[in-house]
Amino acid sequence: MCRKIKPVIYPAPILPVRLEKFCRALVSAMESLEITVLSEEEASGSDGRFIPGTVVFAPGSFPDKLLAINRVSTLYNNIIVGIYDEPAPLTTAALPQERLDAIVGRLARDMVHILIFVTDQSWTICTMNGGVVTFNTPLPTVEDVRCTLIPKLTAQVVPPRPEDLDIEHGTLKTDTELFQSVGGDFAECSRLWRENQCLLTHTSTAGLEYRSDFYKRIVARYLDQRSGMSYGFFARQLPVAVEPATLCNDSGWREDADNKGSVRIRVQENNWLVAVPSVSVITTRSGCRKNHLDPRHDLVEIGITAGRAWLKTPSGVSAANSAKPSFDTLTILAHALGNAITASILMSIRPDALFPGHLARYGASMTHWHDYPQRGMLPEGYYLHGAENPPVSCSTPQSAAYSLLGKITALEQALENEAEYRGDVHIEPNHGTNIVGMLSLAETAAILNPEAVAATR
Asked: Residue range 77-104: average pLDDT?
């Protein structure tokens, strides 16, 4: 990650002394990590715009005409980091949704991707997913820059592009017995999460403060014309039968057509050749309110076949009003593929394991929210991983990779403990949690929201 980053400091015309000191310390920390900080001239092309891939640190308060966003070629080519001489606009008494709304509002007003707030005692990073990290030092240390800031700068959150997947409007049938059963699980799950303040629901772009209509249009384009941002997801992987994995060694592995559609996975010092099947998942649509779901309109089906992703929207919903691909599409599909790979390996190592048969008959559930469960809440047979990973958002390719690789770690824990594997709990530092496995969505929600269950008794 350090080798990849290309930063530049782009200061406001008037820079407070505290921000000058902070930026000098930041540059020093990055240089200690062998990161070359570019001059403004080195970071700019012949047209005066910042070269694609440059991370722009913008300390201070800027007039509209000097905003860094005016000097990038496209919305997704550069990450812009606003640095402010003030405390973070967050209070300890604020609810999670209120904190998120405050962060997103500031991001939209100043047209940046990440916020850094600096005081005499501390500095705080705030990101679009509601993540807040405070360091109790006035200046950034090398370790904090390496372990926290750099991952956030190299793992950019962007929506899937239209060319990334095939969209089939109106092809998801909502009147089938399978959909009715799955939809009922989503509805009960939604009800149980309703009073949980940690399920961040929706931040509307309509209520944000913009410097001008021009910048409002830029925000809309960045969000792919969404009316706002919703956070977290519920998903049900549909049943998939897998083939048992084949034990192989390095000399037996051939990179040829015979292995097309297969991957090699290392588990407990052994290499396994796993045939990767097509997978499909019913999941919440982008922008819906997760705690007030209408299964007929708020669910879509996504999948991946022969390496190509696709999305089906509900029948009876016009193309103009149907869902866009979720920011979390890659992560959800990575979990589904990881489940299939795990089941394939388990079939060979432990033919009597429950997980492969359950996946083939019922599928698996996935729950993601921006908080962390207490240890005592973890379901039996679910294994924890990810807490030591770099802090990247769940909407990034890096997170999808960690989701997939983490399942192998979880599987190895179960094998080492000679215990049943029922699922995994993927902790994403500074972000949230994914719980994936044999429990239904409603059963998972009941474990994580015991007060809601008690209230119905």
From this structure: 84
What tens digit of pLDDT does each residue of 320-337 get?
555 677 888 888 999 999
Establish whether domains 6-154 and 162-455 are of one fold: no
Chain mean pLDDT for the chain? 88
Q: What is the pLDDT of residue 202?
A: 67
Q: Look up the CATH architecture of domain 6-154.
A: 3-Layer(aba) Sandwich (3.40)
Q: Which CATH class is domain 162-455?
A: alpha beta
Total Cβ atoms within 10 A of residue 227: 12
Helix or strand holding residue 183 (H, E):
helix 177-193
Task: Summarize the confidence of residues 311-323 as an average pLDDT.
Answer: 72
Mapping DSSP to helix (H, G, I), strand (E, B) and coil, where does residue 400 land? helix
405 three-state secondary structure: helix
C-alpha distances (whole Å) from 353 to each of 327, 409, 419, 420 are 33, 17, 10, 7
pTM of the model: 0.88
Tokens of 134: 């405070």
CB 11 within 8 A of CB 59: yes
pLDDT value for 198: 77
Contact 323, 300 (CB under 8 A): yes
**Nearby residues of 157 by Cβ (< 8 Å), 6 or more positions away:** 113, 128, 129, 327, 393, 395, 396
Could you state, in order of their start, the residue ranges of all structural domains in the chain? Answer: 6-154, 162-455
Show Cβ contacts of residue 294 under 8 Å, excluding neighbours closer than 6 positions.
288
Q: How far apart are CA 129 and CA 17, in angstroms?
A: 30
